[in-house]
Amino acid sequence: MSQAAARAYQALREDILNGERPAGSRLREEQLAEDFGLSRTPVREAIRRLQADGLVQVVPNRGAEVVSLSAEDFEEMFGLRSVLESYAARHAALRGEADAARLHELCDAMERQLDRLDDDGAHEEITRLNLEFHQLIHQAGGRRLLPELLSRVIEVPLVRRTFHRYTTAELHRSFTQHRELAEAIAAGDGDWAQAVMQSHVLAARATLLRPEEKEEDNQ
């Protein structure tokens, strides 16, 4: 990938993951090239890379747009996460290579956001910290292949800005599970880490797939 294409790819990827380009948004090459001060060739290359990442889809008669996923897509993704992340957590604990101190620092940082949930940036910061937390476990639990597989099934759901759907009680539960995961991994207990991660992922699935009207009632 050329330097110009890499710059366009990174900018578009960040826009998609932080919600500035929501699901269904059109990605017009001419407009993007003008926005980034580039020719259409690196923009086209960036879009192809994002399509390979699962963040962009090409729709007949419409062109490229930010991916829109059905409830069935999310069920499948969280099924994969349940298996793969539980495996990663177990092996991160058994291999003893995880940065346990950093995992606890990330837990602290996420919990501090609970006092500023009315701030528009709090959920975005939780999303960023949560992604780093999970990536540390993935990297400690496997070599190249596992982190790459998990990158796709975790980052794509972020298009739906998962943490905006959590009630305060659900955030507390999620952060408690993070704490327990960090403790299990630090203790080198693979069975404990695997069990907590599976519960954590399944709880996230229940929140994300909750019908909108029920979500509003729980706020």
From TrEMBL:
The keyword DNA-binding applies. Keywords: DNA-binding, Transcription, Transcription regulation. The lineage of its organism: Bacteria, Bacillati, Actinomycetota, Actinomycetes, Pseudonocardiales. It holds the Pfam family GntR. Residues 2-69 form the HTH gntR-type domain. It comes from the Bacteria. SUPFAM superfamilies: GntR ligand-binding domain-like, Winged helix' DNA-binding domain. InterPro entries: AsnC-type_HTH_dom, GntR_C, TF_FadR/GntR_C, Tscrpt_reg_HTH_GntR, WH-like_DNA-bd_sf, WH_DNA-bd_sf. Transmembrane segments: none annotated. Signal peptide: none annotated. PROSITE patterns: HTH_GNTR. The keyword Nucleus does not apply. This is GntR family transcriptional regulator.
